[in-house]
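Entry 14: structure prediction run for Sporulation protein. Input pasted below.
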Amino acid sequence: MDNHFFKNIEKKTGVNMKDVLDLAGSLQNANFKDESTVRGVIRRVSQIANKPVSQEMEDKIVDSIVKDGKSLDFNTINKMINKK
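Run finished. Output tokens:
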């Protein structure tokens, strides 16, 4: 992708695209039925987005993904984190 494109995204979101791409690469072969893997992903996304996630919210996200079988993607986690 175009470096200028990534710089614009970083400027608008404050999120380092290298971190996002590294995370995306690590997710390719991850086991999302494993609770500790899902918790690690949630914590990493929280860190990258600079959005703290309470233990209660983390538990809800984990239950939703591991027990309910929902897909894990940035939009799903973002919606859950930003829910008031």
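Notes: The radius of gyration is 13 Å. Will compare against the previous run tomorrow.
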